[in-house]
Amino acid sequence: VQLQESGPGLVKPSQTLSLTCTVSGGSMTTNDYGWHWIRQPPGKGLELMGAIGYCGDTYYRPYLKSRTSIYRDTSKKQFTLQVSSVTPEDTDVYYCVAYGSGWSWGQGTQVAVSS
């Protein structure tokens, strides 16, 4: 499976960040993969933000749950991350990741939150 992130590289504070991951080579509607969003702040480790399963069930990291949403469009083979009310602390590299028999990563996309 291959994944590719897309979305804006710059978002203003208080706005909503929206990133889309396009999937190729794998099914989003069978129990082969879970679909994740992971981010990495500058100089820090990886952080799982949330995930969506093949049935559309979702998981969010508890402290992000109030402002994070993950949804999918299986007809386009895409899943989307939205983060509302962003602050400069949301400036990170964002990765979409599939987990099946192993981990498959997108190349990552840098997002800066700045006015």
Mean pLDDT: 95
User: What is the percentage of strand-forming residues?
Assistant: over 45%
Total of helices: 0
Largest sheet: 7 strands, mixed
String of helices and strands: EEEEEEEEEEE
Q: Which class of secondary structure composition applies to the elements?
A: mainly beta
Q: Rg from C-alpha positions? A: 13 Å
Distance separating the two termini: 36 Å
Helix proportion range? under 10%
Q: Outline the low-pLDDT stretches.
A: none
Q: What overall form do the CA principal axes indicate?
A: globular
Number of strands: 11
Describe the structure.
The chain is mainly β and 115 residues long. Helix content is 0%, strand content 51%. It contains no helices and eleven strands. Strands 2, 4, 5, 6, 9, 10 and 11 form a seven-stranded mixed β-sheet that branches.
Could you outline the blueprint of secondary structure elements for this entry?
Layout: E1 2-6, E2 10-11, E3 17-24, E4 34-40, E5 47-52, E6 58-60, E7 68-73, E8 78-83, E9 92-99, E10 103-105, E11 109-113
Parallel strand pairs: 2-11
Antiparallel strand pairs: 1-3, 3-8, 4-5, 4-9, 5-6, 7-8, 9-10, 9-11
Features:
mainly beta; 0% helix; 115 residues; 4-stranded antiparallel sheet; globular; 7-stranded mixed sheet
Task: Provide a quick synopsis of the model.
With 115 residues, the chain is mainly β. The protein contains no helices and 11 strands. Helix content is 0%, strand content 51%.
